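chain below, 534 aa
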Amino acid sequence: MADVQPAETEPEKQPRSVRVVLLALMITMMLAMLDNMIVGTAMPTIVGELGGLEHLSWVVTAYTLATAASTPIWGKIGDMYGRKGAFMSSIVIFLIGSMLSGMAQNMGELIGFRAVQGLGAGGLMVGVMAIIGDLIPPRERGKYQGMMAGVMALAMIGGPLVGGTITDNWGWRWSFYINLPLGIVSLALISAVLHLPRKRSQARIDYLGAVLLTVGITSVVLVTTWGGTEYAWTSARIMELIGIGVAALIGFVFWQTRAAEPIVPLHIFRSRNFTLMSLIGFIAGFVMFGATLFLPLYQQSVQGASATNSGLLLLPMLGAMLVTSMVAGRVTTNTGKYKVFPLVGSALMVVGLYLLSTMDTGTSRFTSGVFMAVVGLGMGCLMQITMLVAQNSVEMKDMGVASSSTTLFRTLGSSFGVAIMGALFNHRVQDVMAERAGALGSKLTEQSAQLDAASLAKLPEAAREAYQHAVSAGTHSAFLLGAVVAVGALVASVFVKEVPLKGAGPQKPGDDANEADAETAAEAGAKAAAAPVA
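prediction:
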């Protein structure tokens, strides 16, 4: 089988070996996205066997914290010491964490092993995006957007179904063990066919920067996870975490201006496009993960849909996202133009979220499906284009930190989206329940504003109807907030500058872009392209 390595000349067609590497990368991407969704379905069974219900949230939180904190560090390690080694190391750590999690004998062990798994997961998505950035010029990269969007849609739809099937037939431990064969296949393919230049930086890793960034990100994620649930937003614990997080992040930014080899070199933010894409990615994460949390809840509680097939309820949104992402990728590859997609995508996202905010107890499944499809069309224009433009805005030596920073902003956006939209939803549900069902309504939603199907079925008719109105009111507030936040992405998109994509070929006479820039872009794209080696 041919090796894959950067070539001196840009080929007309990607060789078979590149497609094999892409297959391995998509498997790894699937591992990263599927994990939480599969494990979430298995959680009731896990608690039933291991106990420790009071620590249940930490099974997810430990993984999320470790993933978010390690993401930028993996990106920097790849830039300094070589992409292939860093990526394979992250897969190995993820698989070790998966194996240990499957062997856990109590909740404390499971939480610790999930943190190990999260440390590896932080390098999975970053490695996938950065290696694609190394192998394929941005102009050609659009063709593979549909593949990545398809993996994302498949993970979101199939995750709960796969998790339920595995847990019911093989036991919850296989929710973790299932990662092992997939990860081993990915490792074998990458080891066999991917050959990137080895790097050996003389600079030392910025340990102080890594610690400050980890403390800052951990504090932010804990605030968004605990705020309004474990602790009141105005509680001393949340205030302490906010103070620690702000101080750590300010200290991190200050130190990055002085570190010899900064974890996140601040010069990448001098690129207007990179900064704008980071902002748009944050908002897309805010909206998307908020939507995927509240839409199934609305359809189950108000429209009476089955919780068993909760992933399928998102099919209109995810299907539209997949189609649009494929179209956007093809158009970008054929024309080299991309500014239209953030603009159109942001506008569709605003409109779609506003439409979702109009849903009430009488909205049909067809109507809500159309509204979801509008949001999905917008998402499809944004999800991969943000990474493409961000990578196009930096030099090859910063590909890793650009990929990890963009991924981190999207992750933080999802944390803020779930927390803020969730707080608004819970507050509105409790208010409406108190208005419509009095003391009984307040008691029902005292512990949680999200009732499961079993609890909902046991309610008296009047209380159940009150809860349906309350959920409609809660989703109205949450999606209206999402629409307002999405306006920020629309405004940011207006200021995106359409810089020629690297690898786009020679500049035509009369083009507006600077010819020197075009030559540099073409040269960089040629060096990044992949070619077969006998």
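The first strand starts at residue 3 and ends at 6. The chain has a mean pLDDT of 79.
thats it, cya
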